[in-house]
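In this supplementary section we document a worked example of the pipeline. Step one takes a protein sequence of length 171 as its only input; no multiple sequence alignment statistics are reported here. Step two produces a three-dimensional model, which step three serialises into structure tokens for compact storage. The input and output of this example are shown verbatim.
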Amino acid sequence: MDPKPPAPAELPAPPHDRWAFFRDVVVFQLKLLLDNVRDFALQPIALVAALVDLVVRGKREGTCFYKVLEWGAHSERVIDVYSALRRRGVGDEPLNHDFTVDSLISKVESVIVREYEKGGTAASVKLAVDRAIDQVQTGAGDRAKNVVNRAADKLRTRVGQLPPPDDQLPL
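The serialised model returned by step three reads:
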């Protein structure tokens, strides 16, 4: 009697599957590292951009900060940490939007807004913060220019005169 062929679950995986899996593990770890380095860099950059937006009035509120967010979103798509799932044919599961971080923040925000509308403590805090930011932005334009000019002067004295570009060098 011939032995019967093994059931599909008992068949060994093709050898290239093992190497594809190994590759996915290594690439995933590298992408996680790159993603974390990007996040580590974006935190202080976003804070500085927000401070600049608070101090210097731009065309729109938060111009620098939202530009940093655009860079972060773009780099998120470029890194694409979970791309191995698409190659395996695993699609995105539908997301229950009631259980996201944005949903939680929205709920907390609505509580604060209700308190503000009732004239509670949040209203006086918001008013004081708005006044302070307006005062900073009003007087910041000239001070910011002076700071930049002083920094440029210090840099010029430390670096000295730079050589002319290659196309302007004497022959």
